[in-house]
């Protein structure tokens, strides 16, 4: 007798990947996440490949993981995937101090973030 299986939060044509505790502020990570929202996965991967942001490599890795989850776990067609959602959450904040003049100190905060990417399979629209 065990617990009942938790129902799936996503629809049948969706898959997701989550990257936790990424060493970048949520504000900076959201700039890169906004760049790929709503795009086809091929275009999103190309944009991340040539982005000059430091964190773009980690976002690309997470997107590739979501694509692999869609293909291997949910039998979705990779060519029909779009980035349905890409959202950022706050994680821990490491607090450090920096010595200042006259015996004072100031606080330095080093924030971390979580990233969730959801890909969705969509049917191709016929060009009329």
Automatic annotation (TrEMBL):
<dbReference type="InterPro" id="IPR018260">
    <property type="entry name" value="Ribosomal_uL22_CS"/>
</dbReference>
<comment type="subunit">
    <text>Part of the 50S ribosomal subunit.</text>
</comment>
<comment type="function">
    <text>The globular domain of the protein is located near the polypeptide exit tunnel on the outside of the subunit, while an extended beta-hairpin is found that lines the wall of the exit tunnel in the center of the 70S ribosome.</text>
</comment>
<comment type="similarity">
    <text>Belongs to the universal ribosomal protein uL22 family.</text>
</comment>
<keyword id="KW-0699">rRNA-binding</keyword>
<protein>
    <recommendedName>
        <fullName>Large ribosomal subunit protein uL22</fullName>
    </recommendedName>
</protein>
<dbReference type="InterPro" id="IPR005727">
    <property type="entry name" value="Ribosomal_uL22_bac/chlpt-type"/>
</dbReference>
<comment type="function">
    <text>This protein binds specifically to 23S rRNA; its binding is stimulated by other ribosomal proteins, e.g., L4, L17, and L20. It is important during the early stages of 50S assembly. It makes multiple contacts with different domains of the 23S rRNA in the assembled 50S subunit and ribosome.</text>
</comment>
<dbReference type="Pfam" id="PF00237">
    <property type="entry name" value="Ribosomal_L22"/>
</dbReference>
<dbReference type="GO" id="GO:0005840">
    <property type="term" value="C:ribosome"/>
</dbReference>
<dbReference type="InterPro" id="IPR001063">
    <property type="entry name" value="Ribosomal_uL22"/>
</dbReference>
<dbReference type="InterPro" id="IPR047867">
    <property type="entry name" value="Ribosomal_uL22_bac/org-type"/>
</dbReference>
<keyword id="KW-0689">Ribosomal protein</keyword>
<keyword id="KW-0694">RNA-binding</keyword>
<keyword id="KW-0687">Ribonucleoprotein</keyword>
């Amino acid at each position: 007798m065990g617990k009942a299986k938790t129902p799936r939060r996503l629809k049948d044509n969706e898959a997701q990947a989550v990257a936790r505790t990424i060493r970048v502020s949520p504000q900076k990570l959201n700039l890169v996440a906004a760049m790929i929202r709503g795009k086809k996965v091929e275009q999103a991967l190309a944009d991340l490949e040539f982005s000059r942001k430091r964190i773009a490599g980690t976002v690309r890795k997470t997107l590739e993981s979501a694509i692999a989850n869609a293909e291997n776990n949910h039998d979705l067609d990779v060519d029909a995937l779009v980035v349905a959602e890409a959202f950022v959450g706050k994680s821990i904040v490491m607090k450090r101090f920096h010595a200042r003049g006259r015996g004072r100190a100031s606080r330095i905060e080093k924030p971390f973030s979580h990233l969730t990417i959801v890909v969705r399979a969509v049917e191709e629209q016929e060009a009329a």
